[in-house]
Structures are given as structure tokens and as C-alpha cells.
Amino acid sequence: MAMAFASVKGAVRHAILMLGLLGVPALADERDLCPERPGLDTPPCIVDAGRVLAEVGAIDWTRDRQTGVRTDTVLIGDALLRLGLTDRVEGQVGWTTYGHVRTRDARGMSSQSGIGDVTAALKFGLVHPDGSGTSIALKPYVTLPAGGRAIGAGTWGAGLLVPVSFDLGSGLQLALTPELNALPDQDRSGRHLAFGSTAGVQGRISEAVGFAIEVQLIRDRDPSGHSTQALSEVSFAWQPGKNVQFDMGAVAGLNRASPDLELIAGVSRRF
Q1: Are 191 and 220 in contact (CB under 8 A)?
Q2: What is the pTM (predicted TM-score) of this model?
Q3: Among 146, 135, 131, residue whose Cα is nearest residue 93
Q4: Distance of alpha carbon 174 from alpha carbon 166, whole angstroms
Q5: Quick one: pLDDT at residue 4?
Q6: Using CA atoms, how far apart are residues 68 and 70, in angstroms rounded to an integer?
Q7: DSSP string, 136-155
Q8: Residue 137: which region, alpha, beta or left (left: phi > 0; alpha: psi -120 to 50)?
Q9: Which helix or strand (DSSP H or E) is residue 92 part of?
Q10: What pLDDT, on a 0 to 100 scale, did the predictor assign at position 7?
Q11: 8 Å CB contact between 102 and 75
């Protein structure tokens, strides 16, 4: 009996040891946390298969002044849910839970509130889906007119983003996101072409704190008037753990066709 018990005990110890050894590669293979917020660029990294990454904007305030009209837009709960479908493919669903728009001009002030549209997307990792080295992805998306007049577009839109990143060494990355879009018209009756790109440099201040400096140029051919939007952003992200990130950023318009200022802050959590 004692010999049998000792044999079973040894087998249990051996099994525990083997499980522990098997668990080491699994932990080592887990990808770095890689949210799409808060920057203008879209990172090419793909969420681990079977994992969920929830990204939520706690606050997003934009001020836009155009020819005597000032518009302030506040978004709360601008959410993106990302699900790793395979090692190279993730699915995404985005929705803004609340938006408030206040407009002031010489005649007075008006405001309206409501929910936003729904965005559905797939992201395909073509090269290095973990985001390391030279990484390339494709992200086709479609927007569905679920929102109201305050922040909803009134009709569907679609587009394709090509996120790319290059390792520059010394902890720095060059990020590029060219894009081609069919955006809803301003009068909410159809769609028009918009295209451009974002470029930026990303790095780390410390092991837990990262930063990004980015610029974006988008040519918009709305039937009501063509324009080129030019933006710059500085953002910071703090990751106190491997599955959580807090972020903040400031976006400045570089020409008259762009909003003057946007301030954002939010959180991302991997499950």
C-alpha cells in the first residue's frame, strides 16, 4: 500500500511539473498589449486568438471654429471591442454610446444629443501579426447608420486601412496608416471619396509609459465642398499591468479645414 501511494504521489508530482513546463511557453507567447487608441495611427498588431480587448473612451472633447461658428462635441463611451479569431485575424465592433453637440453663432446657441453609428471591421495580419519588426495588416470596415442626427452620419460608409509599422531601433517604431474611404455625404444622402494617410513615431519613456507623435492628412471630396484636413497629435499611454492601459492625448488642427483642438482620455482592458 505504501509503495502504491508513493508511486501515485510521484506520478502526481511529475504531472504537475509537466503542466508547469507546458505553461511557460504559453505565457511567453502571449503578445504585448496593443490597443488601437489613443493615436491617429492604427497599429497592425492582432489580438491573441480567443482573447478580447475592450477599448473605451472615457471622454473625447472637440472644439471646432469655422467662419463665426463654434462647435463643441463631447463623446462619452466611445467603445471598440476586438476579438482574436485566429493568430492572424481579429473581428471588431465599435459604437459611441453618447454624444453631445453644442453650436454657437451670432444668432445664439443650439444643442443636440444622441447615440452614434456602429462600425464593424476585420483586421488581417499579413506580416508579423504580433506587431514586431516590420508589421503589415489590412483593415476593411463598414459603418452602419444606427445613430441619431447629433453624431450619426445618416447612411452607411465603408473603407480600407493598411496599418504598417517598422522597427527603428532604440525602442522606436515608425507607424503608417494609408486609407481609402467611402464616407457619408454631409447632407446624409450618399457617399463620397476620402483618402490620405497618418504617419508617426512611437516609443517608450519607461517600461510602463509609452508615447506617440503623429500627423494625419485626409483629402475629403464631399459634394458640398472639397477640403484637406491636417491634424497632429501627441499621446501618452500607461500600462500598469500586462492587460490594462490608461491613455490620454491632444490633437491639434494644422489648417482652417480641421478642428482646432481635441482632448481624449480612455482605458483598454484585455480579457
Answers
A1: no
A2: 0.86
A3: 146
A4: 5
A5: 40
A6: 7
A7: EEEEEEEEE--S-TTT--SS
A8: beta
A9: strand 89-105
A10: 46
A11: no
First CA to last CA distance, the chain: 46
Each residue's pLDDT tens digit, 113-169: 999 999 999 999 999 999 999 999 999 999 999 998 899 999 999 999 999 999 999
Which pLDDT does position 235 carry in this prediction?
98
Count Cβ atoms below 10 Å from residue 120 Cβ, excluding itself: 15
Distance CA 120, CA 55 (A): 14
**Residue 240 CB neighbours (<10 A):** 10
According to the model, what pLDDT value does residue 10 have? Answer: 52
Residue 108, helix vs strand vs coil? strand
Q: How far is CA 236 from the centre of its chain?
A: 14
* Separation of alpha carbons 212 and 172, rounded Å: 10
Cell numbers of 218, please?
485626409
Average pLDDT over residues 21-25: 39
Strands 135-144 and 157-161: antiparallel
Could you tell me the CA-to-CA distances from 239 to 31, 44, 208, 267 in Å, in that order? Answer: 14, 19, 5, 10
How far, rounded to the nearest angstrom, does the alpha carbon of residue 125 sit from its chain's CA centroid? 15
Tell me, what's the pLDDT at 162?
A: 98
* 3-state SS assignment for residue 6: helix
Question: To the nearest whole number, what is the mean pLDDT of the chain?
Answer: 91
